[in-house]
Amino acid sequence: MSKVSKMVADRAAIARAVQGAAAVHGPEVAGELERLLFPGGAPDKVTVADFLAALGDTLGRYVASLETADRAHAVELADDDGYRAARDERVAELKNVYASLRELVVRSYGPALADAYGLNSALPEDPQLLLGLAGKAEKLLRERPLTEQPKIKSLTLAPIAAADDLAFAMTALRSALHDVEREKREAQLTQNAKDELMARWGSVYPGVADTLAGLFTLARRPALADRVRPTARRRAGLPEVEDAAAVPPGAEPEKA
Predict the structure, then answer these.
(1) What is the pTM (predicted TM-score) of this model?
(2) Beta strands in 79-147 (DSSP E)
(3) Is 126 left (phi over 0), alpha (psi -120 to 50) or beta?
(4) Each residue of 178-207: pLDDT tens digit?
(5) From residue 169, how far is each of 39, 113, 230, 247 by CA, in Å?
(6) Where are the domains of the chain?
C-alpha cells in the first residue's frame, strides 16, 4: 500500500484531532448545548433544520434579554433626576432654616450668642456636613438655656422651637438622601445586569455565528457563510453595512 502525501497526511492529522475532540468531548458538552439551544426541552426528533433554527433562536433570546436589561436600566435612571432634585430642595430648605436662625440671633442677640448656639458657621455644600452642622446647633438649642435679652423684642429666639425647625428640616433631608442612595443601588444592579449580558456577547455571538458560518460552508453556501461570519467589527458589537439589510426572523428564506 502506497503512502499518502504529506499534504494529505497533514490534513488527515488535523481532521482526526477534530474528530477525536467531537467523539471524546461531545458527550461532555451535549447536555449544556441542549439546554442552551432548546431551553424548553429538545423535541423527540431533531432535524438539521431544527438545529439550525435553534442556533439562531439562541442568539435571538440573548439579544432579547440584552434589550430588556437595557430598557430596565434606562427606566431606573429615568426617575433619578426627580430624587436628586428633591434632595437639592431639602438641602436648600435646611440651609434656609439655619441661615434664618443665624440672622435672627446675630441681629437681636449678637455674634457671641450665635457662636454659643453653633449658628455662626459657614454653610457647607456637602449634605452630610450640613447635617452635622445643623445637628450640633439643634443640640445646643435644646440644651443651653437662653438667658440673654434680645435687642429687638420682635426678634426673640425660641430655642426649642428653633431646634424643632432644624430637626424637621434635617429629617426631610435624611429621607431625601436615603432615596437618592437607594436609587443609586438600584441603578447599579440594573447596570450590572446589563454589563453581564454585554460581556457575554464575546462568547454567545461568535459561538453562534461561527457555527452557522461553518455549517453554511460545509453545505457549500459560501455567500451565506460570509454573511454571518464574525468580523472584527461584529465581534466588537458594530454592524457591517450589509447587516442592515439582513432578513428578519420569520421572513422568506433566500432562494437556492
Answers:
(1) 0.69
(2) none
(3) beta
(4) 999 999 999 999 999 998 988 888 888 888
(5) 54, 22, 59, 60
(6) 83-190
